[in-house]
Amino acid sequence: MMMTGKQYLDSLDDGRQIYLDGQRVDDVAAEPLFEAATRWVASGYDATHRPGDGEAGPYYDIPGSPQDLREQLELLLGWDMVTVTTAQGLLALLTAAARMRGTHPGYARRIEDYFEYCKSRDLRCVQAITDAKGNRKLPPSKQDDPDLYTRIVERRPDGIVVRGAKLHISAAAICHELVVMPTKMMKPGEEDWAVACAIPVGAPGVKIVNTTYAPRAEEEHFPYSSRYNMPEGFVVLDDVFVPNERVFLCGETEYSATFAHSLGLWERLGGSAHLAEGGDLLVGLAQLIAEANGLERVAHIKDKIAEMIIYATLTRAGLEAAIANAKTTPEGWVYPDELFTNAAKHYGAAEFNLMVRHLHDIAGGAVLTAPSMNDLRSSEVGPFVEKYMRTMDGVPAEYRMRLFHAIRDITADAYGGWQLVTMIQSGGGLYAQRLVVAKHYDMDRAKRLGLAAAGLTGEEAG
Ligand SMILES: Cc1cc2nc3c(=O)[nH]c(=O)nc-3n(C[C@H](O)[C@H](O)[C@H](O)COP(=O)(O)OP(=O)(O)OC[C@H]3O[C@@H](n4cnc5c(N)ncnc54)[C@H](O)[C@@H]3O)c2cc1C
What we know:
There is one protein chain. By secondary structure, the chain is α+β, with helices and mostly antiparallel strands. Helices cover 49% and strands 14% of the residues. The longest helix is centred in the middle third of the chain and has 38 residues, at 256-293. The protein is globular, with a radius of gyration of 24 Å. Bound molecules: flavin-adenine dinucleotide. Flavin-adenine dinucleotide binds at residues 126-130, 133, 136-137, 168-170, 232, 421-422, 425-426, 428-429, 431.
């Protein structure tokens, strides 16, 4: 049965241990700083809801052709972040299942059963990969505290007990399921850290400490982030029991990186889609504020906007190439091309800050200092704000101020700061994307071109 928005909100009342600003949050759906996030997710439930047994949302569709993949990506742009992570996380699990089926058919079957379980209950999942990691230069087994990487602390006939922490887990507090996967490749001897499983958020031992960029001030001053925000979860797994049917990896180090690689692919594809759309949004804001300032025909402004257009278009081109070159698994499931997906995500993320710089350069200082809409409405100072914030006939103060507030909110305030870091770190960080790109690039062909250009055959080098 699919859930309605109301049923989703009610489902959060399951005894989960959620913390914010040092306090336990007893009623997650009623917490003001989570309200926009839960309302966003609930509205997604209502938008897709169909009554009756056997119905399921489009976020559970498994793409069977590049066209399916494209259509799902177009839908994804309209989904809330929790629904996006659900679709990406479950597709990643299925991709891992396909890769493990030959040697571990039992795990593959459990993953498929879990997929059906989530689908039949219309559950929302987040991916819990990133560990605390302690001293980055040391492997899990050499850390002074073995819990710095999530690990199995007990094996029982009916399941396992896991301990550790998964950090930066977006929206963990307001979803149903944590899909836990190893943060990196584990080596022989590190079997206890090679663990993948699914854990309900309300399970005993799960504690989630939250941060949020949800505005704590006048909503009108934050036109974007007051509607679109998500808590970030610092997820503690304090000796959590996981029954066997929810364990997808238990010590098989050779498959420890399979989950993260599979997820990386889907997460970066979604990231590229958002970056392409976000690139167009930056272009739109730049053009609108240039027009509002009377500068749209000035050469250096046009030049910067042209560079932003090229950025948005190339990011989208990479996304299109990832879809057009999609591959098919033996099960008939389609997944995007690794090289184009990772190259598009890396390019879009690495250049994002430069595009924001262009936008700030074009817009001017009022990005930060435009008075609030309450100041505009003030009987005492409002007329002055109106007089000095307008620029010309057809550009009243309110119009221009709303543009400035949107630019500040999206690129230069709490949410803007969140975006700047997230672009760099999400999907495993830029370095992870460079590794995958190097692995999938046809280096032999590139070298042949180099040799031919130099008039060499390659035989010359000893
Ligand atoms: C807003 C946000 C949301 C996120 N959402 C999720 C989520 O939903 N689920 C999830 O699992 N993760 C999530 N992440 C985590 C994200 O994937 C990580 O931040 C990212 O993988 C980097 O890990 P880290 O933050 O621990 O940084 P670090 O691993 O400390 O990396 C910092 C820098 O050090 C480098 N480095 C680290 N170790 C080494 C080494 N051994 N040798 C050389 N260089 C090294 C890295 O390449 C990087 O340049 C999110 C992150 C953010 C910011």
